[in-house]
Amino acid sequence: MTLEIQSQQNTLTAELALLSSYDSKDESHRLSSYIVWMQNSSIPWFAPDLETYREYLLNHYHGRNGKSLSPISVKAHLSTIRSRYKSILRSNKIRDYFYNNTSNDLLPGDRKALVDEALERIRNAIDPENSLVKIVTKQDIYDDAHIRLTKQEVSDLLAQPNTDTLMGKRDLAILALLLCTGIREAELCALDVSDLTKTFGGEQSLYIRHGKGSKERLIPYGHLIWGLELTQKWLKSAKIESGSVFRGFYRGGKRIRSNRLTVRAINQIFEKYPVRINDNLRKIAPHDIRRTYARQLYESNMDILAIRDNLGHVDSRTTLKYIGTMDISQRRPKDIYLVSDNDND
C-alpha cells in the first residue's frame, strides 16, 4: 500500500505547503532556496532529505552575496525548513491532501494508516539528530574581530557625512540614531516617523515595533537625545512628515524615493564612512555600532540588565558578548613558576 501522489502535483503543493506568508524575507529566501533544490534534485516535498540538503548548503550553495554559507547560516536554513514542516504536520489540509491521494479501493482504516505513516516519516526526516551541523564555538574573540568605537572614533565617524547635501543629512541621522539607541539595521529600516517620539516613564523614547522575535520595546534617549534631533533635522529637510523615516534617493542624490531603505542599503551607506582605528582605515558595520552602544553604556556604569532591555536581548549573557572583554588584566597570568634565568644549553 502506498500514497499515489502524482509527481506533477509536487511543485504546486510544495509552494502551497512551504511558502506561506512570512514577514521575514530571510525565511522566504531560505524556503525558496529549498524548493528550488528539491525541484532540481527531483526530491518530493513530502520526503524531505535534510541530511543531503545540509551537505549541499555546506559545500555547494552560495548565498545572496555570492559567498559560501557558514555553519551558523546553514543551521538557520535547516531550522526554518524544520519549523515549516512542523506547521505542515499540524495542518488538517495536508492530512486531507494525503488521504485524498490514497487509493479509494482501500478501507478507511487502511487509508488513515497510510496517512499516519507518511506524516511519521516526515517527523523522522526533520529530526535535528539526522542532520546536525557542527558549529565551532568561541570562548574569546580577538580584538580585531569585532569593532567597538572609542569616543574619539565616534566623533571621527560623525564628522564624515557632508551635511550640505540632503543625502549627507540622512546618512548622519542614520549614524546618530544607531549610536544613540543601539538598534539593529532591520529595526532602523522599519521605523516610521511616529515611532521616534513615544513617551516611556515620562522619558522621550524610541518605539521599536518590529524587534527580533516579534518583540516590541521602548528605548529612552536620555542624554543621547541628539540622535533624535539630527533625525528630525533630516526629516524637516526632506519634508517627510509621516511614513518611513529613512528612504533612498533616485540617481543623482537629489530626489527622495518613497520606499524605505533596506538592510543592504544601510550596509552600503556604512561602506562610505571608514574610520581610522590603530592607524588602519577600517570599514564599520552597523552591528559594530550596536556593540559600541553596549560598551559605552557599560563604561558609563549603566546596569547590565538595563543595557540588555535597551538592546532587546533575552539573555544578559548575549549582552555581555556585545560589551566585550573589559579587563584582560584579570586573566593575565602572574609569575607562578620558579624558573632559573641560567642558560641550560
Structural key phrases:
345 residues, mainly alpha, hpI Integrase, Chain A, 2 domains, three-stranded antiparallel beta sheet, two-stranded antiparallel ribbon, 47% helix, 8% strand
Helix/strand layout:
Elements: H1 10-18, H2 25-41, H3 50-59, H4 71-89, H5 92-100, H6 108-125, H7 151-158, H8 166-181, H9 185-189, E1 198-200, E2 203-208, E3 217-220, H10 226-238, E4 247-249, E5 256-260, H11 263-270, E6 275-277, E7 280-282, H12 286-299, H13 304-311, H14 316-323
Antiparallel strand pairs: 1-2, 2-3, 4-5, 6-7
Helix pairs in contact: 1-2, 2-4, 3-4, 8-10, 8-12, 12-13, 12-14, 13-14
What does this structure look like?
By secondary structure, this protein is mainly alpha-helical. It has 2 domains: 7-130, no CATH class; 151-325, Intergrase catalytic core (hpI Integrase, Chain A, Orthogonal Bundle), CATH 1.10.443. Helices cover 47% and strands 8% of the residues. A 3-stranded antiparallel sheet has the order 1-2-3. Strand 2 and strand 3 (217-220) form a beta hairpin. The chain is globular, with a radius of gyration of 26 Å.
